[in-house]
Amino acid sequence: MRRRQRLGLLLQLFLVLAASLLGVVTNYATNDGNAPFPLNILERAALPGLALLLVALVIGHFVAYRLENPPDPELTWDRSRIPFPGLEAFNEDEAAVFFGRDVQISEVVRRLHESGTDTPARFVTVVGASGSGKSSLVQAGVLPRLRAQRWMVLRPIVPGTDPLGALARSLSDVLDESVESVSRRLRRSETELASLLARARREKGRRLGRTLLVIDQLEELASLSGERDRNLFLASVTEALRRDRHLRVVATLRVEFLGDLLSGEHSRLFTSPVAIGAIDRAGLAEVIERPASLAGLRLEPGLIERIVADTGSGDALPLLAYLLQELYLSVGAGRTATLHDYAALGGVGGALSRHADQVVAELRDDGDPAEVLRVLLLFVTVTSEDATRRRVPLGSLEPAQRRIVDAFVDARLLVSDVHDGSPTAQVTHEALFRQWAPLRQEVRTHAERLRQRAELERWAADWERSERSPDYLLGGQRLALAEQWLDGLRQVGQETSELVAFVEASKRRDQGFLLRVSKGIAEYVLANVEQYPELAVLLSLAALSECAPTPVVQRALMAALSFSHGRLVLKGHTDTVRNIAWSPDGTMIATASRDGTARVWDAETGETTRDLTGHLGMVEMVAWSPDSTRLATASRDRTVRLWDVATGESTTRFADATDVVRGVAWSPDGRWIAGASRDRVVRVWEVATGRLSASLVGHEDNVLGIKWSPDGDRLATASHDQNVIVWDIISAKPQLVLRGHQDFVEGVDWSPDGRSIATASGDHTVRVWDASDGRQSLLIRGHRDRVWNVVWSPDGKSLATASADRTARVFSASDADEKAVLRGHDDGVWGVAWSPDGRRLVTGSEDGTARVWDLIPQTVERKVHTSHTASVTSVRCVRDWAVIVSAAEDGTVRLGGLGENDGASSLHQHGGKIRAVACSPDGQRLVSCGIDRRGVLWFVGGERQPVILDHDSAIVESAAWSPDGTRLATGAQDRSIRIWDAFDGSLLTVLTGHQDWVVGLDWSPGGGMIASSSDDRTARVWDLSTGRERFVLHGHDNWVDSVSWSPDESHLVTSSADWTARIWNISTGTQSAVLRGHEGRVPCVSWSPDGTRIATGSYDRTVRLWEPRDGSEIGVIGMHRDRVTCVDWTSDARSVVSGSFDTTVRVWPAEVDLERLQLLARRRVFRSLTVEERRAHMLAVAEDGQ
């Protein structure tokens, strides 16, 4: 248009200049009679010249007008063609029979001509309801006119699921470039479309020509396309309009989708649409009569009026077009259609439904009519707005489905074509599922399923267009949702092979990803479990439930539980829990808080049983009466109160202090109450009368802590003056002053035997003092901040401490060895107290909570024996008795039961660490071996004295009993194996051959052989009838620590410091399997009595089971807090017993109940993973950030 405008303007300028020149010449000619000869000629020809110029001006205007407004193209019609397209839209070839929309066509053409340089104005959107004829208007009305005006009109596109691909196919028609290449360029950048259009015009010789991009069914951008593709498509079109002033775009859009596009980032394109309404009665008559006339179809008088009257709104035009097509086909060209013919077809409203019903009836012999509807549902998709048509590849259909589709194609209700080089089909018009009641109802019934399929297809299309990049696959919650949706689609026959492939690929990738996440979490947990036990439990639970329940994650959870001491969290206080105390009867816990209250809690459930209110200031300390019936509290309101725990009432108030009372202590006999005050005075009151009995003066600063000696004769007080004073109660005089701390001393406690005093200080240390002379006997370091409190364990062997570093810790009272670190509080820990049985602790914190901790946390083990005080070196189960025999480096052999309440008895005879223990088959005798260079034969009943087995000054490392109980064998560091009489201890035989210590022995079930393992990296099988080696088994790369026979005597299993165990075939002496998986030395191995499993223990702290047939790992069944040293099976093969450097003997079920393990873990944690923690470990985070 601009070229024609410039041409018209040039013509006009030329005429104006010519006229001006003629005027000038004429002026010269008339002013002077002596004008030159040429001017004289012009003077005589002036009037004729003016007339000629006027005629030229008129002709110029006419030429410019015709260039700008060419006449409509001459349209002709082949009378042999059907003039009615039915449900299909009119196309350009059918422009001659398209009537009734002249006004709208002219408006769209005018908009495209007059849009100028404004980018949104050059994007003309034709908006109307479904069935209003938008596509027909553009293709049969607008496009022929623009082609006649020499516009370069690109092949119309339908966005579908891949709008950029559709655009690429249209551009490929006018470019010498493949569709794939154009598609890649379009996806590369939003500027590529403008470049491709400019190149297309150059190649077509239309450098200055106008270009029209036609987008039909633009609503598919919202209903079928993914968000990324939609945005890139619209961005590309917008950028092309901005860069290319020759480009125009016309698009058709269903009106209900206009709001979606107006709310998007490209809304400016859609602000001035051309609305297409219903055709009036005159227009409908024209739509009926004029195409019929062109095709030679005569209409009976009154028929046109009847059809117009019956035509409604909504889907009127497609229904009318379908009726007219059917009428034409039933009557034929050159004949007259009658009212009877019209009625026979069912009229405007019934023709389509009647025809569809007829197709279903014809298909009834081939299948269930319900199956027909299920197949037709494949051609419908549902978005948030409404149902729309869906293109289906014919190759994806089953033969039975294809027969149904072919029948509907033959009936012109479906239309087939080739799309992307493959045959496809779609509904001819959406009126089929809007007007035909059976399909309409089917769509309504399954609308949600179809909506889910549409969403899945968008995701799958994004994946396909990315060339199946793993980045576009689903994971986490979205994958779970997709699986759920696909199952639902499968139930109604709407799943597709593309969706199945997409979801399966996502599952494979997600499983791989989840396995990697699971492995990463497990590695983190195992590396950090001691530092962050609560986080370790939370992460392990998440990995099991959200990722993959792999053996390594199960192991991580066991490790986390072995370090997770948490049992209860006591919540209720609104400020710091300043102090805490466990009742002497073990049933209650009392807390003192800076919120001004004290509380009493049930020690088992954590429920509050009493809320003690009445103090007018913060409560600083609580103390139980010896009989657990009363509670004493000290407060900043300068008072001490006594409370009846049963009623929660305050019974006594001591108000003699002149400043804050920081501490309170009840005498062991319950007769006296002592209080420590900031006024530097310690006061003692008589409980019965409330009388002040004594005031102890001696501290030079606040008195912070106070405790009675176990005998009640002395009182220890701790002060801000950095000293502890031990007072004689009778004389009220200082007996000792403990000096040495470098900062305030707040915590103080007596050992249960009264011989020692422990103190806790702001100098980050705990110190132990001799209570008789005040000499410091132990200095404990470990806390990284001030230590507020210290308490002795009931057995006097351990000290528990509370610190501002947010931890409570347990130390050995003899050597300051750190036994446990309790982490979980979110702020400093102020108070700590032991349960009366010494198995639990309770702490109070500045975070406002109290926590109860298990000092020996259990995982899935059935029993934990804790009687040893050093590393356990050997365990044996008495086969027919429920008894465990264990030996340890504490020099003891202990016999313990398998039952819940079975205790343990000890045997002491060795003068040092015990290396091994073995039991006679009848359980009546034991042999133990130690570093005291001897074996000891024990008679359990005690009827005989132990028998000493002398090993010639060599440390004895191993022992084994013959199956008949008559002999026993020992292996020693002198490389020998000795066979002894099992009753009198006499030496029978010595076997030699090993080149290093003999550290493992096992007697064959038949009694004819002994297997031995040695630090010489071999295992050996000895024939006892000859005393000679039968086999020497080579294969391990380090010390061979342990050996065990299979019950049938056909195989042997060995374990080694090379981190493996190996199975050997005894008939050949060859290796048959290697058991790999442990991440540390494997010092112990045991074959189950039923021969079906092998148990190993490792320095990686795990107990594992293995399949003997192929050496595969069954799983981790147990996890110690430290290295595992020994394992053995119970006689029923249902449990494995293990010993460890952590000093415990534990009994594990041979089959781990994972659900029980997870339930136990959930009881050990009292919060959820934070969003930051989840993201840090690549766990899914919900959209709401939860």
UniProtKB/TrEMBL annotation:
Pfam families: Beta-prop_EML_2 (PF23414), nSTAND1 (PF20703), WD40 (PF00400). CDD domains: WD40. Residues 622-788 form the EML-like second beta-propeller domain. The keyword Repeat applies. Keywords: Repeat, WD repeat. SUPFAM superfamilies: P-loop containing nucleoside triphosphate hydrolases, WD40 repeat-like. WD repeats lie at residues 570-611, 612-653, 654-695, 696-737, 738-779, 780-821, 822-855, 907-938, 949-990, 991-1032, 1033-1074, 1075-1116, 1117-1148. Residues 83-470 form the Novel STAND NTPase domain. This is Ribosome assembly protein 4 (RSA4).
